[in-house]
Amino acid sequence: MRDLRLSDVSVAYNGRKVIDGVDISVPALSWVALIGPNGAGKSTLLKAVTGLVDHTGTIEIGGRDSAGMSRRLLSQMVAFLPQRPVLPEGMTVAEYVAIGRTPYIPHWGTESVEDRDVVVRVLTRLGLDDLGLREIDTLSGGETQRVVLARALAQESQILLLDEPTSALDVGHQQQVLELIDELRLEQGLTVLAAVHDLTLAGQFADRLVLLDHGEVVSDGSAEEVLTEARIERHYGARVRVLAGDDGTGRPSVLPVRAPAGRKRVVVGDSSQEQPG
Amino acid sequence: MRRISLILAISTLTACGATEGDRGAAPVTGETAATSSSVIAEFPVTVSAANGEVTVEQAPQRIVSLAPTATEVLFAIGAGDQVAAVDEFSTYPVGAPITDLSGFEPNVEAVAAYEPDLVVVSDDLNDVVSGLQTVGIPVVHLPSAIDLDDTYSQIEVLGAITGNLGDAAELVSSMQTEIEELAGSMSVPTEPLTYYHELDSSLFTVTSATFIGQIYQLAGLGNIADQAGGAETGYPQLSAEYIVQADPDLIFLADTKCCGESADTIAARPGWDQLTAVTAERVVELDDDIASRWGPRVVDLLETIVGAVEQVEAP
Amino acid sequence: MELAHPVTEVPTIQARPRMALIVLVAVVASALLGILVGAVDLSIGSVLAELADRVPGVEVDSGLSERESAILWQIRIPRVVLAGLVGGMLAMAGAAFQGVFRNPLADPYLLGVAAGAGLGATLAIAYLPDQAGGIVSPLPLAAFAGAVLGVAITYILGRSATRSRSTATLILAGVAVAAFLTATQTFIQQQNTDTFREVFAWILGALGTVGWQEVVLILPYVVVSGAALILHRRLLDVMAVGDEEAESLGVPSTRVRLAVVAAATLGTAAAVAVSGLIGFVGIIVPHAIRLVLGSSYRLILPLSLGFGAAFLILADLIARSVLSPAEIPIGVVTAFFGAPFFLFVLSRARKA
After folding, report:
1. C53 in a domain, yes or no?
2. Do A107 and C12 touch (CB under 8 A)?
């Protein structure tokens, strides 16, 4: 079981703070969704946890400071799915998933039988048996996403970081992938921190939402708490209706709404008003 | 250019004493009998060439020459029937066994295919000397001569190593005599004449310090390129302006075969029709080969030069 | 232990014994052909007998004269061995560069190796021309030093690449360094015009050799470089997913790239030092293997060694037979293969 804790974490690029004094706690086995407009720093935050960018402050994984960990150890504890994974030309699905075993294979060695067993298990669990020998650049969007997920699972780490896992998928596949992640989380005892694009889906699947804007946490709590029309308008600049979850799930739905013709939307202070345009 | 220091060591001969007939510095002409008997006694022979000391056990019967000058010398000293193959540029004498072997890009194996017992080269390119030595073929490296004494030494080396020392000595002697006569036959001019020797169409020339420059000096000629920029290399490149300014009394073209130049073609060059040598028809078309080799035909070259000089002085 | 699922069969040479056999046959066959062809006629029987005679414990009279034997052992065989070493090394280095820069058209000369070696060779030819008789000729040393320096300068200049994880910066630095070194080389050549022919001949590549000294000279470099590259073959596959993802999997990308480039450069510099700049081997051979057998470097690297050796042995054979006794510069022969090969690759890419 692993939990994740960020304390006063900052990340700077060229002297400019992209992440500024962020405190986030991701309890073991939970799913925390990172939301926020483009450029808010969601990807950067995930990369900081993965160890791909330098940070100040403390990131603790299972109580241990990640700063002291070797890259290898970190990769055994944390698996990262990037937003646009590179799909090497000519590589088969099986080879690609096997790459997920890299943290366990000696630097100059080759896969052991156990490593290959893990790959088979993962392929089977994600229904990719028939695609094992297909080249990954020939797959559909949904299949590709499952393959990338398979590679992350092959890493057998207990913390899963996902950078917008649904951005390239249609509505049907978006749900499928998120449901799959949820199943795996419960099955294998994973902790999930995901940057999620769609606010409704974020609300439906995550235990908690963290709203990031300009590198700072501006809201942290349950879906009902975080997803308010005012807040969304202020940080996304979008006009929405938030419907309370009355379909039994208890999770709100966020609907984009268009201003009536002839009216312009203006943000004044903490509230917005409609004015004749 | 490297200097050859020539040391002739004829070992068995000195051991046997002086009973083998006259072996002085000036051999007796026409004594072929003495020559043929001394062939047997001369071997094994060791000569000194640019690649060090070379020893040959018996008179070579399958010589391969990759040097046109050496080819001319070999045939001039009576070793012609000992020659099995010559390189693609050994065009003289006609009748030499010319092949497509190259002296510029020598191929050790191709040379070896002719089963030579001696190879003569004038350049050590592609490590041909060490290559031939590695496969056990004796090779003699005789680079371009820097003066006439070099030429004579090389003739004697080839004479010794092919068992034709008598003929070689005769050739040297006759060359020396003819050259002396030619040089002496000329009247001393009131003012030394100048010349320009053209190597190719891009106006490369020679200075008096080169081998051929010294031949010209024997004819009392002054070289216009001696003061030119780049003269220290021996082969400076002149410009048309320089040549027009220097206005040489004589022009010698050594690029008639390679580059198709002639008295007419150079007269057609812009500004060249003003030159004294062109208007007075004192442009001499040389044979490229004769002008670039340092063998027996330098005598012919000197003859041509002297002839041209005498034409000037006899109006 | 039950057999692993066939889908996850690791793409190693051991798992493809048929491929290993094909490579071995290719190398041996081309070597034999190379040894048999030459200006002097040596029959197959006598050559094989001569080779057999060298096997300890076997005594066979080949019937070759001492001179023919010398030609075989001092000219033909060292040349074939040299061609094999150079070809295998260049192909492996090419494969390594393709892997580490994630570009199937990368070649071992990418980061200034060629320009650096060319400058070193030009300096040696122009200013140290009379040293050929020495025990250690300065030309290979100068070429080697130039090659290594060229890459070192590229790395220092492209140092920002080590932080930004962008290979593009490094490659651009390589282009700049190559341009500068080539310009310097041209300048020196202009100051010493008598060197043009010799430098040009060196640049086009030549495997002419008598004796074994060049083989002995480069053998340690090829062995060390080859071993280092083979050790990194799985890592090259992992690097295919990009620096960032590789790091998230525990692989120190920039360090791996540096190690691979250093090893490949060492071997390439040695090859270039003795044989000049032979092009296209480093691109054609690994790329052809990739087209047939897939993109895993665990296959491409070791197979490049074998097929690269066979390829260059055959190219050298053509170079010295077609216009015998003259030799076509071997760089010209490999280029002759290269151009149609690239057209072929382009046409396949368009169809895909």
Report:
1. yes
2. no
Question: What was the pLDDT predicted at B27?
Answer: 34
Give B6→chain C minimum CA distance, Å: 20
Please tell me whether the interface predicted TM-score (ipTM) of this complex is above 0.90: no
Q: Does C164 touch chain A (CB under 8 A)?
A: no
Q: How many domains does chain C have?
A: 1
Q: Is residue C3, in this structure, part of any structural domain at all?
A: no
Compute CA distances C311 → A215, B153, C17, whole Å. 57, 49, 21
Q: Which residue has the higher pLDDT, B25 or B260?
A: B260
Q: Provide the shortest C-alpha distance from residue A18 to chain C (in Å).
A: 16
* Dihedral, CA of residue C99, residue C103, residue C105 and residue C106, to nearest 10: -60
CB spacing of C296 vs A95 below 8 angstroms: yes
| All domains in chain B, ordered by first residue | 11-178 (3.40.50.1980), 186-313 (3.40.50.1980)
Instruction: Give me the residue spans of the domains in chain A.
Output: 4-227
> Average pLDDT, stretch B214-230?
90
- C248 CB within 8 Å of a chain A CB: yes
Q: What is the mean pLDDT of residues B234-242?
A: 89
Query: What value does the mean pLDDT take over residues B54-78?
Result: 94
pLDDT at C200: 83
Superfamily of domain A4-227: P-loop containing nucleotide triphosphate hydrolases (3.40.50.300)
Q: Are C279 and C63 in contact, with CB atoms under 8 Å apart? A: no
Counting as contact any 3 or more CB pairs under 8 A, the partners of C are A, B
Residue C256, domain CATH: 1.10.3470.10
Q: Which residues contact B181 (CB under 8 A, 6 or more apart)?
A: none
Range of the domain at C334: 18-351
Q: Nearest by CB to C241, from A86, A103, A116: name it.
A: A86
Q: What is the pTM of this model?
A: 0.82
Among all chains, which residue has been given the structure tokens 């060319």? Answer: C118
Tokens of B34: 């003495």
Residue C103 located in a structural domain:
yes
Question: Which residues have C-beta within 8 Å of that of residue B152, sequence separation ≥ 6?
Answer: B172, B175, B176
The predicted pLDDT at position B35 comes to 42
Give the residue with greater pLDDT, B11 vs A137: A137
CA distance A71 to chain C (A): 5
Q: Is the pLDDT of residue C92 over 90?
A: yes
